[in-house]
TrEMBL record:
Organism placement in taxonomy: Eukaryota, Metazoa, Chordata, Craniata, Vertebrata
Domain Major facilitator superfamily (MFS) profile, residue spans: 45-487
Protein name (database record): SPNS3 protein
Coarse class of the protein's main subcellular location: membrane
SUPFAM superfamilies hit by this protein: MFS general substrate transporter
Gene for this chain: Spns3
A single GO molecular function term of this UniProt record: transmembrane transporter activity
Length: 492
């Protein structure tokens, strides 16, 4: 009893912060090295989470992969076509704070499984929607976005609980590699299914089967409770001082603190705010590229006379296949390069992470602008500069998340991720596909309809992305001025 009491007093005097909430609401301190979870189990958990992330982003980019077919099927303008991805992203971002709140307080495994099952079922149902029910198709994409939000918000916090800072960057890099891999596979799966079956609806019938498998793996391989225990946690458990989900403060918090107070604290965190705005610029660019780039490449080749205009019921999806391959390759290389650069440069400069993000955003904006300018005359150069633009964008995925995880206290991480998702999508890729479509419509409306202006309208619209990308680099540069102070504050 005396030993237990001494352990408790020592933990309290050291002022150790509590970690992210456990799956069942039990608070888990974050500063210790030891864990009850064996390494093999942790690897299985990460593998299941990566598989779910793969399916998540495959489903996300099925629509852009067969965009030309969908546009013809429903008879849509560029503006209405862009609305499909905008509705998906709006629902995704609005649901994210809700799942962030739930993820900090309730069983994360149940939330993940329910989200996977829900969006898989809706995706399957959307494959049977007829051409006279465009609004129902739009609604189905919104519901899929809600299911996806549960996964993107909660899965990174489980990784944060399983691994400490040194290993966490590597594991997060592996996890985020499946963003570009899933995105590229989405293009390729959609284009391949449409080509092989002659009916684009079949593209929506593959991921539900994969989603069902992911739910099964989640049930079998992921433990019911995932938490990182420390001496402080054991001491508090012995004393009976661990509180219920919404009454679990760290040493510096009281049970009366609310989610609104968490948000207020995050808003005052300059590194979190600036890096989130940088991520917003990334999301704006990637959302616009992901939705419209295959169609832009098709129109560029039509203007050059490389391919004829599509007048058939099923259009060629070769551009989606190529762009999907580029997305996969550049995504893997970019994320690995970003993680390795961060690992090496952190030893020399404490501001390395935001500086890496800033540099990559500036280079990406430059490559994208060059790609747009040469698109009408040299399609090969266009593909090359688009590849470099995506490569530099991909450098940032894991690095940005790692910035959040070490400038925000573990108790607020799910909420912080949810807020970051909300802001980055609200001001980023929720509006960029629709905005690009509206600008394209406006340009076309001022000229006589032609293949030339169909291409130019999209070209002029994409210049917006180059400007926003450079702006994002500025926000990451601003992050570097605050990151050292905010990191020390989070550790305290």
């Amino acid at each position: 009893e005396h030993e237990d009491t001494d352990l408790l007093l020592q933990a309290l005097l050291e002022g150790q912060n509590y970690g992210a909430a456990a799956a069942d609401g039990t608070q888990c301190p974050s500063v210790a090295v030891s864990r009850n979870s064996p390494a093999k189990r942790d690897c299985l958990v990460v593998a299941v989470l990566c598989f779910g992330n793969l399916i998540n982003f495959i489903d996300w980019f099925i629509v852009p992969g067969i965009l030309l077919d969908i546009q013809k099927y429903f008879g849509l303008s560029d503006g209405k076509t862009g609305l499909l991805q905008t509705v998906f992203t709006l629902c995704y971002m609005l649901a994210a704070p809700i799942f962030g709140y739930l993820g900090d307080r309730y069983n994360r495994k149940i939330i993940l499984g329910a989200g996977l099952f829900f969006w898989s079922g809706v995706t399957l149902g959307s494959s049977f929607i007829t051409e006279s029910h465009y609004r129902i198709f739009v609604l189905s994409r919104g519901l899929v976005g809600i299911g996806s939000a549960s996964y993107s918000t909660i899965a990174p916090t489980i990784i944060a609980d399983l691994f400490e800072e040194g290993k966490r960057t590597t594991v997060l890099s592996i996890f985020y590699i499946f963003i570009p891999v899933g995105s590229g596979c989405g293009y390729m799966l959609a284009a391949g299914m449409a080509k092989s079956t002659g009916d684009w609806h079949w593209a929506f019938r593959v991921t539900p089967c994969m989603g069902g498998l992911a739910v099964l793996l989640l049930i079998l391989l992921v433990p019911h409770r995932i938490q990182r225990k420390t001496a402080a946690h054991r001491a508090l458990s012995i004393s009976g001082s661990i509180l219920e989900a919404d009454e679990k403060p760290d040493v510096h918090r009281t049970a009366k603190n609310t989610w609104c107070q968490d948000v207020g604290s995050l808003v005052r965190n300059c590194s979190f705010v600036c890096s989130s705005l940088g991520l917003t610029a990334m999301a704006f660019v990637t959302g616009a590229l992901g939705m419209w780039m295959p169609l832009f490449l098709y129109r560029a080749q039509v203007v050059q006379g490389i391919v004829p205009p599509c007048l058939q019921e099923s259009c060629s999806s070769s551009d989606s296949l190529i762009f999907g391959g580029i997305t996969i390759g550049t995504g893997i290389l970019g994320i690995i390069a970003g993680a390795e650069a961060a690992r090496r440069l952190r030893k020399r400069n404490n501001k390395a992470d935001p500086l890496i993000c800033a540099t990559s955003m500036f280079l990406s904006a430059l490559c994208l602008y060059i790609a747009l300018m040469v698109a009408q005359t040299n399609i090969l150069s266009t593909f090359i500069f688009i590849a470099f633009g995506e490569l530099f964008l991909s450098v940032n995925w894991a690095v940005v998340t790692d910035i959040l995880l070490y400038v925000v206290t573990p108790r607020r991480q799910s909420t912080a991720i949810a807020l970051q998702i909300l802001v980055s999508h609200l001001l980023g890729d929720a509006g960029s596909p629709y905005l690009i479509g509206l600008i394209s419509n406006a340009v076309q409306a001022r000229h006589v309809p032609s293949l030339q202006w169909s291409f130019r309208s999209m070209q002029y619209s994409f210049v917006t992305c180059a400007f926003v990308g450079a702006l994002g680099g500025g926000f990451f540069l601003l992050t570097s001025f605050y990151i050292e102070e905010d990191r020390k504050e989070a550790q305290r």
